[in-house]
Amino acid sequence: MASAPTVRVDTIVLIHGLWMTPRSWEHWVDRYAARGFKVLAPAWPGMEGEVEALRADPTPIAGQTITGIVAHYAAIIREQPRPPIIMGHSFGGLVTQLLVSRGLGAAGVAAHPAPVKGVLKLPPSTLRSGFSILRSPANRRRAVPFTADDFAYAFGNTMSREDSDAAWERYAVPAAGHVFFEAAFANLDPNSAAKADTHRDDRAPLLITTGSEDHVVPPTLARSAAQLYRPSRALTAYHEFPGRSHFVGGEPGWEEEADYALDWAVEAANTMSPTVVGEAPRR
User: Fold this and answer.
1) How many CB atoms lie within 10 A of CB 168?
2) Is 33:62 a contact under the CB 8 Å cutoff?
3) Is residue 190 within 8 Å of 222, Cβ to Cβ?
4) Segment 3-45, tens digit of pLDDT
């Protein structure tokens, strides 16, 4: 179990991913707050409404961009009295990497993250998970519906269909097509907003995780992302959870991932983070 917050690290910023809202973090928020941490789970800019409202009117989703999302969270993080732990899931994990590469945060956890620029091959299951978006270039300007079938493959593949459908009903919203296209074709864009400084030595420690049964970010994709950071002297760690899917917020046993992420981040921040200990980290 994670320790109580220290005077060095006492705040956690949680960043949701594509197809989700801050509601997807509801269990993690409660668990971390019970340990005494200040927990912030802001929505992507303009997506502050509830799931039901965003389904009824997905206009705020369609206008999302990676640049706008990163700037939004960077401003929130800079407002905090001390550098927080930054945790992001899926596309929120991509955003986490971009924020950490800008020197923000005391530690970063990219949980089952969408890849930053530099990961050259997307596995078939990743492409299938996003096929509802990728199948039409016109979706770049749309909020693309995420059906119960889409959810069952991308998030609910380790659950019964009944439980998957219930989770879809509670958490899922349409996806921002522009954001997905930006990440999927990042390697073709010399000025891609998904480019992280993977060589930076004086950044916060970064943990990249995934699950062995994750269809969206399978282990081959997450490991490739972690390997991009090999030139950096800063701490980068990778961890794979056996039997886990992409649904970190509510899949049975989610507590294991939540506790591992917090334990790792608190330890790494207090011992290896330049924003906390005042010196460049070492492997």
Assistant:
1) 20
2) no
3) no
4) 565 558 999 999 999 999 999 999 999 999 999 999 999 999 9
Q: Kindly report the backbone phi and psi dihedral angles of residue 146, in degrees, each rounded to the nearest multiple of 5, phi listed first.
A: -115, 105
Burial class (CB in 10 A: 0-12, 13-18, 19+), 54: buried
246 Cβ neighbours under 8 A, 6+ residues apart? 90, 112, 129, 154, 155, 211, 214, 215, 216, 217
Q: Which of 123, 104, 132, 118 has its CA nearest to residue 205? A: 104
Please report the DSSP string for 181-243 in residue order.
HHHHTGGG-TT-TT---TT-SSSPPEEEEEETT-SSS-HHHHHHHHHTTTT-SS-EEEEEETT
Sign of the alpha-carbon dihedral angle for 50, 128, 69, 271: positive
Using CA atoms, how far apart are residues 168 and 134, in angstroms rounded to an integer?
21
* Residue with token string 């330890």: 267
pLDDT tens, residue by residue, 63-90:
999 999 999 999 999 999 999 999 999 9
Go through the domains of the chain in sequence order and give each one's CATH number: 11-277 (3.40.50.1820)
Q: Which residue has the tokens 């079938």?
A: 149
- Strand 143-144 and strand 175-176: pairing? antiparallel
pLDDT band at 1 (very low <50, low <70, confident <90, very high): very low
HSE (CB half, 13 Å, CA atoms) of 51? 19
